[in-house]
Amino acid sequence: MGDFLELAAKRQSCRSFSDKPVEREKLLKCVEAARLAPSACNSQPWSVVVVEDPKVVPLVAEGTMQLGANSYIKDAKAFFVVVEETAKLMPAVAKICESQVFARGDLGGFALSLTLEAESLGLGTCILGLFDRPRLRELLNIPAEKNIFLVVAAGYPRDGKIREKSRKPLDEICRFV
Ligand SMILES: Cc1cc2nc3c(=O)[nH]c(=O)nc-3n(C[C@H](O)[C@H](O)[C@H](O)COP(=O)(O)O)c2cc1C
After folding, report:
1. Which atom of ligand 1 is nearest to the CA of 11?
2. 55 exposure class (CB count in 10 Å sphere: 0-12, 13-18, 19+)
């Protein structure tokens, strides 16, 4: 198995974190990897709030648990709050496409790069789509007109067990012509 495939296979959603804090340097490397992700017209429709302050982390954790989900996130040591920004597409593209049409795909790539870099640094992550958006917006001073797209919980995994992946088989999702 090549190195990248190995990394992709090892990355899994981590829902139980150890008490060890995460070094800022590692958090920054995750953002750096995400920043290098591709985007339509190189529009980079993203920004991120990295939450590492031990006083604020539990408040964000509460915001991700408020909808009755994600109770296992309570021990996360940091959060990346990923915000959708306005995409500035090239004029020729903007003429035929609405500005945000590619943004969600771009943001998915941003989040995936971030989680893969985290994995390579020995960190566990869990992408969260379910959270109390108004509450996090208020807590982190994110303007009302901006969409918090995803939250990524991070920390050192409590155990290093790799689960078997549950995925559609290759021949169901892929064909060659
Ligand atoms: C956009 C998105 C939203 C997600 N939201 C949640 C969530 O709110 N809570 C959660 O526990 N996992 C969430 N996940 C994690 C998925 O459940 C997980 O990626 C999937 O089951 C595959 O498992 P793996 O990441 O361990 O390979 C989300 C993943 C993505 C990509």
Report:
1. 27
2. exposed
Asked if pLDDT for residue 69 goes beyond 80, the answer is: no
Pocket test for ligand 1, best of 126, 131, 151 (most atoms within 8 A of CB): 126
Name the residue ranges covered by the structural domains of the chain.
Answer: 11-157
pLDDT of residue 72: 84
11-157 maps to which CATH number? 3.40.109.10
* Helix (H) or strand (E) segment spanning residue 124: strand 124-128
Residue 67 Cβ contacting ligand 1 at under 6 Å: no
- The pTM of the full predicted model, rounded to 2 decimals, is 0.96
Task: Note the pLDDT tens digit of each residue in 18-34.
Answer: 999 999 999 999 999 99
